[in-house]
């Protein structure tokens, strides 16, 4: 009687190698799909944050009958609410312009951040430091595809001395936030534009600090709220602190684009270039001097503030998220025609825009 041979168990070396190769191939095929799905989720969250900002600005308009100032340097009077009195003079300078705040501060109450707003304003009217509220990184500030909780820490500062950044800024038109001024006999001559071209910006201005902002009502958006940009994404600098290469890497000011501060050149974007293109023009003190990421966020130093510009940028593939003045959110391709892109940033250009 012949004994039956026992059944073989396990894999041969060749079978094991083949199995590993198949698994590796499957992982290689699945990984891009997983990464794409994660980015799609991040982009969705990013557009959701942008929609919250747009809704908050529209709620501010409903409550105050206008969008907030891009930024104001009006000194606080004895009673809150009288800041406009310092902004109606005929001079270039906003009278007393020492205390500052950007549209971000005015929008906080409509983003469920009333306590932070009140803390900032109490410090402002008391004449004490208001840096602490500006240092708070809020989730709604950041696009998850970029750098959540990014902050600006000037010259190695830490803690409350750092200022939060954000990816969402407002539309200041085609070229610059400060409108051009004429110069006669070496002196700046300021004249307020009666009909600003974009929802946010300054109607008067010469050099740092000497500017007067305007506020826009929706009825001024004559091109249509669904065809006029309200906000867009920008990239934030990937490093909280700046270093100065070639000098022992000593601490220096980091890039300031996207800083949640009253600075008038950090809170807006312009459509001089199509999304994710062009070279941003910044002040020397704006951090471009120490920007070692020129391929990703290119910039060039300008001595004055009349020619500053910031392009809409994102870390999404192929375009940026934008919000229109009706609160709707869209994804704009990098390949959009420059004429269409600029027409979307003007609110009274009379341009015909069929699609974008």
List keywords for this structure.
16% strand, five-stranded mixed beta sheet, 17 strands, 356 residues
Short summary:
The chain is 23% helix and 16% strand. It is α+β, with helices and mostly antiparallel strands.
Chart the SSEs and their pairings.
Layout: H1 13-64, E1 71-72, E2 101-102, H2 103-107, H3 114-126, H4 131-134, E3 151-152, E4 163-164, E5 168-171, E6 182-184, E7 187-189, E8 202-205, E9 211-213, E10 229-233, E11 242-244, E12 250-252, E13 268-269, E14 280-283, E15 299-302, E16 319-324, E17 329-333, H5 338-345
Rounded Rg: 25 Å
What is the number of beta strands? Answer: 17
Q: Provide the structure class.
A: alpha+beta
User: How many domains would you count in the coordinates?
Assistant: 1
SS field, number of helical segments = 5
Q: Could you spell the SSE succession in H and E letters?
A: HEEHHHEEEEEEEEEEEEEEEH
Q: Terminal Cα separation, in Å?
A: 85 Å
Task: Indicate the mean pLDDT.
Answer: 77
| Weakly predicted, low-confidence segments | 88-99, 180-191
As a percent range, the share of strand residues is 15-25%
The largest β sheet comes out as: 5 strands, mixed
Sequence of strands across the biggest β-sheet: 13-5-10-16-17
Shape: globular
Helix content: 10-25%
